[in-house]
Amino acid sequence: MCLELMNSLVAAVLTVCALVSSVHCASESIAWCYHLPSCNDNTWPTISPQYCNGNQQSPINIVPASAKFNANLTDFTFKNFNSISALESIKNTGKTVKVTFGSGVQVSGGDLSEAYDSLQFHLHWGNGSSVPGSEHTVDGKRYPMELHIVNVKASYNGNTTQAVADSKGLAALGFFIEEMSGTATGQPASWKTLTSYLTNIKDKDDSVSIASGISLDDLLDGVNRSRYYRYLGSLTTPACNEAVVWTVFKEPIKVSKDLIDLFSTTMYVTNSSSPLMTNVFRKIQPEQPVTESAGSSIRSASTAWYSLGLMALSLALGRKW
Ligand SMILES: *[C@@H]1O[C@H](CO)[C@@H](O)[C@H](O)[C@H]1NC(C)=O
Ligand SMILES: *[C@@H]1O[C@H](CO)[C@@H](O)[C@H](O)[C@H]1NC(C)=O
Ligand SMILES: *[C@@H]1O[C@H](CO)[C@@H](O)[C@H](O)[C@H]1NC(C)=O
Ligand SMILES: *[C@@H]1O[C@H](CO)[C@@H](O)[C@H](O)[C@H]1NC(C)=O
Ligand SMILES: *[C@@H]1O[C@H](CO)[C@@H](O)[C@H](O)[C@H]1NC(C)=O
Ligand SMILES: [Zn+2]
């Protein structure tokens, strides 16, 4: 019993560390990593067993053909995503690049049970644009990068211990990042600005403040946020708490190759004596039921009519749709 209590305390501390700034995280004790066989994701179920070997783990491969349409998955309301001063600081955590938000950024709607406070986003990547490193995959396709916006139920007032004890305490918004076609460099401008900070945070625990000027909307430009997948899963890093309502947007953010490449060529796991940060993503976990929002798939009118025809046929045959 004592051991169990200890484990849950450690899990809570680690989760808080992952979510909140590291000021409170001197006690981080489970040394997990991506790059060494002794602490990479193969070991997480062993070194962080309370949740990492659970049965509702993330990330997953999404199979669009198996995703069930859910009319409740309506549009979100994004509060202060248009603020050009909401992005406060950017940090090398040794595992990712994390951008922390000021207060007042929120997401609601989209069949979330209440408003969720948006705390931070961070990124997952492979090794440049040619070795993809998104966490989720779609029909087995892995994108170059994935951006995660982490949100916590507003009613917990920032108490992440309570949030991770609730199977829907956190809401994660996942955005794929794809290489922009053509030969453009330094595009889009918002990503050029964001990545310009990377040279100031090459080493672990380096952190700098972000000048006002770019908004979340700027960074998410070009993505139709009405079109998304939904499933219930976990944090993708230890302690892997199964407390996350996942939203994965179908359309990728398009960023030029030179900017994508900066992540795997600039950021060190600790410092210039250590490896560069590459392949910072967890491997695919067992499938979960996935639903999709209204109008998620772009279909031609004829395909839509064909589906309606099939539906009518199956109704006529008395099949449960
Ligand atoms: C949609 O929401 C309604 C009302 O909360 C609920 O009864 C229904 O089961 C939901 N539908 C799906 C497909 O989840
Ligand atoms: C990443 O790519 C670079 C350039 O192609 C290569 O030198 C390096 O070994 C790769 N790193 C890993 C971890 O695969
Ligand atoms: C968070 O909630 C837990 C459980 O209700 C409580 O024990 C703890 O004191 C709270 N933490 C903070 C920082 O308020
Ligand atoms: C890198 O970090 C290690 C371990 O903290 C330290 O011993 C070493 O001096 C650092 N090297 C440089 C070049 O900063
Ligand atoms: C976004 O997708 C929805 C659903 O497919 C569609 O109705 C809407 O027109 C799209 N919006 C834009 C700006 O393309
Ligand atoms: Zn993540």
UniProtKB/TrEMBL annotation:
InterPro entries: CA4/CA15, CA_dom, CA_dom_sf, Carbonic_anhydrase_a-class, Carbonic_anhydrase_a-class_CS. The keyword GTP-binding does not apply. It is an enzyme of class 4 (lyase). Keywords: Glycoprotein, Lyase, Metal-binding, Signal, Zinc. Its EC number is 4.2.1.1. GO terms for cellular component: plasma membrane. One of its GO terms (molecular function) is carbonate dehydratase activity. Residues 30-299 form the Alpha-carbonic anhydrase domain. Gene3D superfamilies: Alpha carbonic anhydrase. Its cofactor is Zn(2+). Residues 1-25 form the signal peptide. The keyword Cell inner membrane does not apply. It comes from the Eukaryota. It catalyses: hydrogencarbonate + H(+) = CO2 + H2O. Belongs to the alpha-carbonic anhydrase family. Reversible hydration of carbon dioxide. This is Carbonic anhydrase. It comes from Scophthalmus maximus.
